[in-house]
């Protein structure tokens, strides 16, 4: 948890140094940290799904926007639990170059692992589609349009 607090602190200090007013950085900070944490959680989920350790529930969702519900819950936890009460400031972190490199490295590592795992999953999906092609009987025939009837 201390690592999460440090990431929140560094992003908060970055926003303050860029001249954002005193209340707005809490929203930006919690949004940025939420995206980073969500990419980490989703990458682990995709990897476990790729290894067939868990079932992929995203295929059963009627709409892909249902994936935003956990993101909103995570944002609320970070905003109202960490950023708004300023818990991360009670640790008296110092702004150092080493800490900045660690946070930038964490962001780069998050992006790289997400891309690599997504490519693995994409390759698996392509192999499944090649192994089980859609048969022409399964595809519904298009109904003739009214315009084509009129033209005939």
Characterization of this structure:
The protein is mainly alpha-helical. 66% of the residues lie in helices and 0% in strands. It is built from five helices and no strands. The longest helix has 35 residues, at 97-131. The radius of gyration is 23 Å and the shape is elongated. It starts with a helix and ends with a helix.
Mean pLDDT: 85
Q: Give the termini separation.
A: 70 Å
Looking at the structure, what is the overall shape?
Answer: elongated
What kind of oligomer do you see?
A: single chain
Low-confidence stretches: none
Biggest β-sheet description: none
In helices, the fraction of residues equals 55-70%
Structural class given helices, strands, pairing? mainly alpha
Tell how many strands the DSSP assignment holds: 0
Which percent range describes the beta-strand content? under 5%
Number of helical segments with 4 or more residues: 5
Task: Describe the structure using short key phrases.
single chain, mainly alpha, 66% helix, elongated
């Amino acid at each position: 948890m201390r690592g999460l607090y440090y990431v929140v602190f560094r992003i908060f200090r970055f926003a303050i140094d860029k001249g954002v007013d005193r209340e707005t950085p809490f929203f930006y900070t919690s949004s940025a940290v939420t995206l980073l944490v969500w990419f980490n959680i989703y990458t682990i989920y995709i990897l476990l799904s790729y290894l067939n350790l868990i079932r992929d529930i995203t295929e059963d969702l009627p709409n892909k926007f249902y994936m935003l519900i956990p993101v909103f819950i995570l944002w609320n936890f970070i905003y109202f639990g960490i950023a708004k009460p300023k818990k991360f400031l009670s640790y008296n972190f110092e702004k150092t170059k080493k800490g900045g490199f660690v946070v930038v490295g964490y962001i780069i590592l998050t992006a790289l692992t997400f891309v690599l795992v997504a490519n693995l999953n994409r390759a698996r999906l392509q192999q499944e589609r090649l192994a089980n092609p859609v048969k022409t009987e399964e595809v519904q025939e298009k109904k003739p349009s009214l315009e084509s009837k009129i033209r005939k």
